[in-house]
TrEMBL record, chains A, B:
Keywords per UniProt: Glyoxylate bypass, Magnesium, Manganese, Metal-binding, NADP, Oxidoreductase, Tricarboxylic acid cycle
Annotated GO MF terms: isocitrate dehydrogenase (NAD+) activity; isocitrate dehydrogenase (NADP+) activity; magnesium ion binding; NAD binding
Enzyme superclass (EC): oxidoreductase
GO biological process entries: glyoxylate cycle; isocitrate metabolic process; tricarboxylic acid cycle
Organism, scientific name: Dyadobacter helix
Described purpose of this protein according to its UniProt entry: Catalyzes the oxidative decarboxylation of isocitrate to 2-oxoglutarate and carbon dioxide with the concomitant reduction of NADP(+).
Cofactor(s) this protein requires: Mg(2+); Mn(2+)
Name of the protein in its database record: Isocitrate dehydrogenase [NADP]
The Isopropylmalate dehydrogenase-like domain, residue ranges: 3-333
EC number(s) recorded for this UniProt protein: 1.1.1.42
Claim: Glycoprotein is one of the keywords in the record: no
Reactions the enzyme catalyzes: D-threo-isocitrate + NADP(+) = 2-oxoglutarate + CO2 + NADPH
Domain of life of the native organism: Bacteria
């Protein structure tokens, strides 16, 4: 039994969390669940962090956190809980696999199978913004050598363990010679320690263009935080749907697993949402805690359901789908 | 006769410039050409700006500048001449049309016809970088209200003049609430003054995902500098090739026209390069200086050549191409 913390979040969060838990428990996951409240209700109760202080203790104690998407209220003062959690818990690596499920899910990129490893604590996400004059605002992009070293090493270790062949780095160091330049030079240094893994670097503009056009050229990718944010959404969407992708946020002590999409308040409570993203997060979680057999079982059942053409609205297409279902029916299947 | 400044640049630059000039002159362009030297040779002669001071006078005097791609030498101290020129001349708007030429050029996105209007002077391109400690470096992202106002207004005026229906704004203001928040709020303000043009805003992660997956959803897009840099390469590539796209850099006084791709030193001198990007830049230039008839003639001749299947190596595909040609033959055709 592994004790895990869960949070059902906002919008479609509770539905997809219930579906996900039902699936993994019936597949035999040995987990003990402790629930905490995060997100909109906590924000609106006056806590601008979106989480109560005791909840941090719970997360830290259990070390494993499965989190559904949350809604951050509009307007000043509210911090993004996603970002705060990553920083508070030192979750430096955000791992986002994007694989097409051709011919079962409609995609223009049938041979795509990549993993984006996104630096998860630094860059413009440091949240340091400042009004200089009435008319000029600034935001600080921070990059540190230890931060670069941790994420680049993680990417190569990941490639090694998963038997992947190549790690590609994207930066814009023709412009940001010091910040992105540091990331690039650390990449060059560390890649030398992995002679069996191919490595390459692209300036992000043309790199992103190639990724969007011919993603099958890539394998593992590593990049600073903001680039990883944008390009993991791009990659997930062109592989099939952002609704199908999960993500693992990995630190030295703790790890958080989630869907890459948001809480989609307009779809909430209608039994419409595709639980696949959070389910992928849960599969990564099961692998992380060593319950690899269960992870495999869940993954296969999920693949089978998708392959059978049992699709929720977001990936339903005439050519590939057979049965249009809601969140609950998808989970049952 | 309009006097223009040209620079042949580096790598494939001279070949595509010669091809471009030959084409537009034989189409009847009434231009008087003054050539300046920029790029690698100037850098390596010890001028870290890549351009001689007198050349600025030439550019300012003639106001219209057609520039081939240049190579910036590796290593510290060299400034990107592209970026310096944009700033020195106050070229605040970078206009990048990306249209697919289906079925003549291979693309997965046959109905794509968008224009990216990229802010061209601010953002992380301000070039303010700084080593804080031995292990921490930072770069400043600067956004100003006048800068946002100019570019957003330009985008709506452009849409109005070109009879386009919608302007879409991309920012990451859920994280960068002050900087990207300012851009977004200026967009909201100014869009109200154009009730006949539809407007919408997307967070850049999911916005970029939609752009890469279903570009036909978009029309005119406006965004901060770095996002525009990356997404214009993405858009040009999925429309057909970055080699087909040109760009106009527009200021109050001067304007510069170029290809969006680089100098591709490895392809230089081999009569391989596709001159289309610079040629598109030249067509925008001809429209800008009021020689719209000539612009149309060049554009139609170019379209016809592409439609005939006379393609350079980069867009040559078995399904769509008939004749594989070099730079010179393409220009002749
Ligand atoms: C919700 C937002 C703060 C978050 C991010 O920008 O990291 C999300 O887009 C993601 O990718 O997990
Ligand atoms: C060469 C480089 C400095 C330039 C930029 O980043 O703006 C280029 O990528 C472009 O898009 O024109």
């Amino acid at each position: 039994m592994t004790k895990i913390t869960i949070a059902k979040g906002d919008g479609i969060g509770p539905e997809i969390m219930d579906a996900t838990l039902k699936i993994i428990l019936s597949a035999g996951a040995k987990i003990d669940i402790e629930e905490i409240k995060v997100g909109e209700t906590v924000y609106l109760a006056g806590n601008t962090a979106g989480i109560a202080p005791e909840s941090w203790d719970t997360i830290r104690r259990n070390k494993i956190f499965l989190k559904a998407p949350i809604t951050t209220p509009q307007g000043g003062g509210y911090k993004s809980l996603n970002v705060t959690t990553r920083k508070f818990l030192g979750l430096y690596a955000n791992v986002r696999p994007c694989m097409s499920l051709h011919p079962f899910v409609n995609t223009k990129h049938p041979d795509m199978d990549i993993v984006i490893i996104r630096e998860n604590e630094e860059d413009l996400y440091a949240g340091i913004e400042h009004r200089q004059t009435d008319e000029v605002v600034q935001c600080l992009k921070l990059i540190s050598r230890p931060g670069c070293e941790k994420i680049v090493r993680y990417a190569f270790e990941y490639a090694k363990q998963q038997g992947r062949k190549k790690v590609t780095c994207f930066t814009k160091d023709n412009i940001m010679k010091q910040t992105d330049g540091l990331f690039h030079s650390v990449f060059d240094e560390i890649s030398k320690q992995y002679p069996d893994i191919e490595n390459e670097h692209w300036i992000i503009d043309i790199g992103a263009a190639k990724l969007a056009d011919t993603p099958e050229l890539f394998d593992v990718l590593v990049m600073p935080n903001l680039y990883g944010d944008v390009l993991s959404d791009v990659a997930a969407q062109i592989a099939g749907s952002v609704g199908l992708a999960g993500s693992a946020n990995i630190g030295e002590e703790c790890a958080m697993f989630e869907a890459i999409h948001g809480s989609a308040p307009r779809r909430a409570g209608q039994n419409l949402a595709n639980p696949s993203g959070l389910l992928q997060g849960a599969v990564m979680m099961l692998n992380h805690i060593g319950q690899t057999k269960v992870a495999e079982r869940v993954h296969n059942a999920w693949l089978k359901t998708i392959e059978d053409g049992t699709h929720t609205y977001d990936i339903f297409r005439d050519q590939t789908s057979r049965l249009k279902v809601g969140t609950k029916e998808f989970a049952l299947a």
